[in-house]
Automatic annotation (TrEMBL):
Residues 1-23 are annotated as: Disordered. It is found in: Cell membrane. Residues 32-481 form the Major facilitator superfamily (MFS) profile domain. It holds the Pfam family MFS_1. This is MFS transporter. It is a multi-pass membrane protein. The keyword Lipoprotein does not apply. Residues 1-13 have a biased composition (Polar residues). Gene3D superfamilies: MFS general substrate transporter like domains, Multidrug resistance protein D. It comes from Streptomyces endophyticus.
Amino acid sequence: MTSLDDMNGMNVQPSIPTPAPTPVPLRHPRALVPVLVSLGMLVAVVSSLGAPLIPTIAAEDHVAVSTAQWALTVTMLVGAIATPVMGRLGDGPHRKRVILGGLAAVFVGSLLAALPVGFACLLVGRALQGVGMGLVPLAIATARDALPPEKARAAVTTLSLTTAAGIGLGYPITGLFAEYLGMYAGFWFALGTAAAAFLAALLVVPKPPHRPSTPMDVPGGLLLAGGMAALLLALAEGERWGWLSARLLALAVAAVVLLGGWIVHSLHSTHPLVRVRLVKDRGVLVANLTTMVGGVGTYLLISLVTRYVQTPESGGYGFGASIVVTGLLLVPFSAASLVTGRLVRAMGRAATPARMLPLGCLLSLGSLVCFLLARSSLWGIGAMMALAGLGVGVTFAVTPGLIVGGVPAAETGSAMSFNQVVKYIGYSTGSALSAVVLQASTAPGTTLPTDDGYRNAGLVGCAAFLATGVIAVALTRAGARPRPSLVAAGAVAEARTEPSRT
C-alpha cells in the first residue's frame, strides 16, 4: 500500500485499511457540484442569520440582550453536537437519507423561527437550524465518492470554503430583510431556500457506495454532546456569570472531564463516533490545530469589525453604520475566501502545506495589523476584510486536502465532521474573547468600550494567528524533505483506494 509518507512526507501509515470504492452512478452529473455547494452555502447563511438580530430580538421578545444571544449560541451548540453524529451516520449506506433529514430539520426550524409567537419558539427553531451545520462534511464525502479525482479535489476545496464565505453573505441578507421587511423575514427566506435545497438534493445527490453500516456509538455521542454543551455554555455565559464564578469553573471542569472521557472511550471503542487515532496522522493533526486556532482569530476579527462600525460616532470612534452597511462590509471577506480556492489550485506543485498554511496565517495577520493601524474609513475596513478573506481562504483550502489524504475513504465524513467541530470551537472562542477584552475596557456605568479596547483585542487576534503560523511551520516542516503539492497529494490519496495501486 502507498504510505502517507510518500504522500506528504509525514512519516505515518494509515491506521485503517481502505476499501475498494464502488463507482457511484450519477443521474445529473453536471448539477451535483452546484447542489453540494448550495447546501454548504445554505448552512453557512442560515447559521449566521441570528447574529445581527440580537438587539432586535431582545426588543421584540422583551428579553435581556444576554438571553437573546442564545438565538446565535444555540445554533452553534446544536451544530457542534450534530455534526460528528451526522458524519458517522453518513459514512454508512444511509448518507443521502441523513442529508435529507438534515435539510428537513433546517426547514422545520426555519418555520418555527419565522413564526412571531415568542422567544421560546424562536429558540427551538434556531436549534433545529443548527442540525444543518452537519451537512458540509457529508457534502464533502459525497464529492469524494461520486466525482473523478480532479473534480473531487476542486469540489472539496470549494466546499471547505463555504462556511467562511457564508458568514459574509448571511449578515447582509439578514440586514436587508430586517431593515425593510421586519425581523422574521430572514427566517422565511431560509424556509424557502431549505425547501429548494431539499428538492435539489432529493433529485441530484446520489446514494453512497455500498459500505457496511457501523453501529452508532451512543455512549461516545453522549460524552461528546455533554462535553461540547458544557464548553460552549461556559464560553457563552462567561461574561455574564463572571469568568471566575463557581458555576462557570464547575462547568469548565465538567467539559474537561466529559471530553477527556470521550477521547479515552473513542480510543478503546470498536466503532467510535470519530476515530481519534486518525488525528495521529501529522496532516490531520496540523489541519485540525490550524483550523481551531485560526478560527479563533477569524471570528474575533469579525466580531470586532461588526461591533466597531456600528458604534455611534459620539463614542469618539466608529461610524454609526446600519446593519445593512455592516453586512456589506463582510461581502469582500466572502468573495476573497472563495477566490482563493482557484488560486491555490492554479499554483500547482507550489501549493504545498508547508507554504500555503504559513501564507494564509500571514495574510490573516496582515488584516489584523490593518485593523490596528488603519481603521479610520469604511473603505479601508472593507479592504481589510478582503485581505482577511484571502488568508482564511488559503488556510481552509489546504486543510481538507490534508485530511482527505490522511484518512481512508470510508472515514472521510467522520474526519471532516470532527474538523468542523474544531472550527466551531475556534469560532466560539474568538467571539467570547472579543467580548471579554472589550468588556475589560468598558468603564463602570458606560456601555461603550474605549478605543484602546479594540487595540487590545486586535493584539489578541494577532497572537492567535502567530500561534497558528508557528504550529503550521513546526508540523509541516518536521522531517525536512521535499513534499508534493496538494494536487499531487490528492492524486496519491485517490490511488490508495485502488486495489491495483496498493
